[in-house]
């Protein structure tokens, strides 16, 4: 019998505002492939019980107890046998210098073993999360190790310049608007040219403002769709598209195909699991 357990939590102390925790423990389901979708945040996965199995760019499989990924515009493929257990740490890219000792741009488009960036702290956090008692213990273990990462002095962090206030403002506006604010408006707000803003933004985050907006818009739309599916409400893809700043439903569907590798309802059927038998859903994905 499939079982699902999970919990979300905010970190303590100075980590607040930099990261968020989402624990998951899924057992007894059918084998499959989970899509790790693009989002405007870095992803740190710390597993327990068994490692993450990821599809590598060359088509092979790679096992990782701790995985760290930058911003990306294509889905990651996570292969599982019906058992997935870990904590997904959502990391603000503007906190990458402070936590990782490098800008988020150095991880753009890639996923690496945690120890390539965190060194021994990655192995320690994996062991502590594995040995912890329940979600409270796992979140406390993450707090302890990530706080040390935040406090730790490193040559990369000492040599790196702080995030420019203009880039910080632009990033907050992109995410806060759900990706709907135009780049020219961002440039006007910070007093830079669009070209200069694009260069500085990309050097820090790893993608230009327009692509970051695309990720934020997609992330908000897919979360709204998931919330409707979980609640058993009509999906109303056209409404979600309009609310999210897409030109129309067809535009939203094309973005799902590009960023998730499938249609919205196929993604919901795979990940949420409660829409595959609903009549008429496939027709909603078709372009008019």
TrEMBL record:
Pfam families linked: DUF6597 (PF20240), HTH_18 (PF12833)
Protein species of origin: Actinomycetospora cinnamomea
MF annotations from Gene Ontology: DNA-binding transcription factor activity; sequence-specific DNA binding
* Name of the protein this chain belongs to: AraC family transcriptional regulator
User: Does the keyword field hold Transmembrane?
Assistant: no
Q: Which UniProt keywords apply?
A: DNA-binding, Transcription, Transcription regulation
Record's InterPro entries? AraC_XylS_family_regulators (IPR050204), DUF6597 (IPR046532), Homeodomain-like_sf (IPR009057), HTH_AraC (IPR018060)
Q: Which SMART domains match?
A: HTH_ARAC
Recorded superkingdom: Bacteria
Q: Which Gene3D superfamilies match?
A: Homeodomain-like (1.10.10.60)
């Amino acid at each position: 019998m499939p079982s699902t357990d999970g919990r979300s939590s905010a970190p303590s102390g100075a980590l607040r505002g930099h990261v968020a925790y989402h624990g998951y423990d899924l057992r007894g389901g059918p084998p499959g492939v989970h899509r790790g979708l693009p989002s405007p945040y870095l992803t740190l996965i710390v597993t327990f019980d068994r490692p993450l199995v990821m599809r590598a760019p060359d088509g092979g499989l790679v096992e990782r107890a701790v995985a760290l990924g930058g911003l990306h515009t294509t889905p990651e493929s996570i292969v599982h046998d019906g058992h997935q257990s870990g904590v997904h740490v959502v990391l603000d890219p503007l906190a990458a210098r402070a936590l990782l000792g490098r800008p988020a741009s150095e991880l753009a488009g890639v996923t690496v073993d945690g120890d390539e960036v965190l060194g021994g702290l990655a192995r320690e956090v994996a062991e502590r999360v594995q040995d912890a008692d329940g979600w409270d213990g796992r979140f406390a273990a993450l707090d302890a190790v990530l706080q040390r990462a935040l406090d730790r002095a490193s040559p990369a962090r000492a040599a790196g310049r702080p995030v420019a206030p203009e880039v910080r403002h632009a990033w907050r506006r992109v995410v806060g608007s759900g990706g709907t604010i135009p780049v020219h408006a961002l440039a006007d707000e910070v007093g830079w040219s669009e070209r200069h803003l694009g260069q500085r933004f990309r050097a820090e985050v790893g993608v230009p403002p327009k692509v970051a907006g695309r990720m934020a818009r997609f992330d908000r739309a897919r979360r709204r769709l998931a919330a409707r599916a979980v609640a058993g409400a009509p999906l109303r893809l056209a409404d979600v598209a309009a609310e999210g700043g897409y030109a129309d439903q067809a535009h939203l569907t094309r973005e799902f195909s590009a960023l998730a590798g499938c249609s919205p309802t196929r993604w919901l059927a795979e990940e949420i699991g409660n829409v595959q038998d609903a009549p008429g859903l496939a027709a909603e994905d078709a372009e008019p």
